[in-house]
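Case study B.
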Amino acid sequence: MFRILRAFAWMRWRMLANALEHSGSRDTLQRMSLAIENLGPILAAVLLVPSALLLGAMGIGGGYMLAGGGRSVPFDIARVLLLFVPLLVIVGPLLMPGADRTNPIRLLLLPIPRTTLYVAQSSSAFGDPWTMLMLPLVLGIPVGLAAGGAVGAALVALAGALLLIAVIVGLSSLTTSILHLVARDRRRGELVALVFIIILPMVMMLPGLMQSGPRRERGEPRQPRLPAWAQTVTARALAVQPGQMFAEGTRASVTGAGSRAAASLAGLAAMSVVLHGLGLFAFRRVLDSPGSSGARRGTAARPAWGRRIPGLTIGASAVALGQVRLAMRTPRGRAILLSPLMMLVIFGIMIYRGSGTMDFGPFRFNGGLSLATFASVIALLGILPIAMNQFAVDGAGLTMTLLSPLSDRELLAGKAAGNGLIVTAPLLMSLSVPLLVFRSGSPALWLALPLGLLSVYLLVAPVAAICSATFPRAVDMNSIGRGSNAHGAAGFIGLLSFLAAGVPAILIVLLATRVLERPFLAPVLLAAWCAVAAVIGRLLFRPASRIFAARRENLAMIGNR
Amino acid sequence: MELAVETRGLIRSFGGFRAVDGIDLAVPAGSFYGFLGPNGAGKSTTIKCLTGLLKPNGGSMRILGIDPLEDPVAVKRRIGVVPEDLALFDRLTGEETLLFVAQIHGIDLGTARARSRDLLALMDLAGAGHTLVADYSHGMRKKLSLAAALLPAPKLLFLDEPFEGIDAVASRQIKDLMQSFVSRGGTIFLTSHILEIVERLSTHIGVIAKGKLVAQGPIADLRAGRTAGGTLEEIFINLVGGETAPMATFDWF
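Model:
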């Protein structure tokens, strides 16, 4: 078994090294693009070492102080950090690109017993960053306890640490196998991804939603508003959380509460056995059902294909509608459509419960206009992953487009229109729902808002085309995490361009409302600015078209990946 | 003789490596041109240059009398391509893919629907017309790609390995379709490793090895220059130097 595990470790190392060394770049610009793309993982890997050392030191310090009998702040911090590890283990594989995990099916061809294969797959959990950071922390605590003279407690803590690691590895293995089973059927995989998009942020927002209420006056004490049942559920959930069980067992062993320590260890051991049992069962299911179990999906062709978008050629219209279909039929695209609406609902409830206001960090949102502004900006920014990688998101379909009798200008116009159409639905919702619910604010400003958003899009669209042509990234739109994000450089430039393009609109509104004190001028001036932005945008599409023509070959190669 | 594809000294390099090294292609209009070569010889790179996916580093090209570097859109209006990687949108259905192609070619919706119905039936994909391409098998994708290439009624078809991964029934249908296309005046430029099929279908052959065109002409002329009864396989191996390759022997095998 050791020989096979060593081979697996070597294989994973070579895959990582090859991904960094053999980029397949075709020219200097692409080399630079790939270097920027690899910078993040390299930086993370570099930062991992000092972080692990720091956490190891924290574990040792925490254990040492705990052995002294007093309150150990490092140990309390470690306890809080361990809360997040199981969550990361579950969410991590979903957000990380699927390619990062080896598909066990292909390994079936090798002469490896299935149990060994399970151990090999489980051991890949040690390569996850959260596991690599957890190890020095939990193993440092028994070292610190031993150094502080509490040798018996150190042994209990060591046993607890090893059991906690086994639990985390089991959880990781079970999650990976379940994801393999779920993702085998594409539709089911997409549904799960979408549920995660909706459910996770909701869960994260839940405490805020529950605690929101009328604004407190300055100096007024905060009242705990979490319902009693929620507090009970939280307390019970925390009691069986593996990290907390480890911490509780360790603390109990120091204070001499042997039965509590033993109970914690037994709990961790039972959890480990159950998780690995389930993990092995799920893994066997993965190996036994290599084919897709899902039926083919039928989708009726909508008459939209025959439509010509005003101002576009029929070819450019086809490209635009293709872009919209991509957004509607991929988890990432649906996330772009749905996430702003979800934010709208959450913040809408918070404002509603807060009697028309909501505090968000240093900002206070008042009424519907603020909510509409916030939600529509979020909706507009949501298009970044697609707009800033508008060519490569087509995958192999991009080659079909490049082989088509479309001029570069038609293609760029179609893509810009398509991205605009994608963002239109969430924008309309972001504007109309707050208007209908809150019915407050100046009508002139309500009119100015969509005009301001339009001016931003007109200016950003050519920048998006340039970024997409210069920094294309092969993506998997079925992924909702990094795997479907635009290139880091394109995303960053895109964000900056959004902010820069918004400045004139904001200044115009400030000029009309604060300087001239005639809010009705805001939509008039913004309409004029939209016309100017349209001209600037059109002019910017000329260099965009030239850059696209120069990068056609590289884009075709990206499409082939 | 009218030429559908004509190149003069076509060169395409990747860094210091010349994938296509000054080839002079002459594909007669109305011919079935089999373009052969070992793996890595430069076949796909040549097709990519001819169809506008790659820009040549040197030489000249004329496709149906038009220089694709000067007017690529005009060339693309007249050709159909089945690329090696099939190049399909995963998130469109089979029918939508064909309608997309039709719309880009400016074909009205009624005609597009009629043609897509015909082609889907011909390719035995009628029942999968409303299924996403993501759910298609490799063979179904291949047939859909061919249908997409045929839909605008091109004068010239570039087919890169169209029979790879195709079952015998579908292969027969596609072969019949190709012969019908050529018999009605169309030109086919085909690459395939299945020499029996190329031998049976092609009227002309071009052989590329290490980026250079080592033979070209009517298949009968190529045969005439060889020993009596020589198959295309023997001619091919002879041309690309396969006969000189030593027989692999391992003491452990």
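Strands of chain B lie at 3-14, 17-23, 26-28, 32-36, 58-63, 79-82, 156-160, 187-191, 204-209, 212-218. The remaining cases will be described in the next quarterly update.
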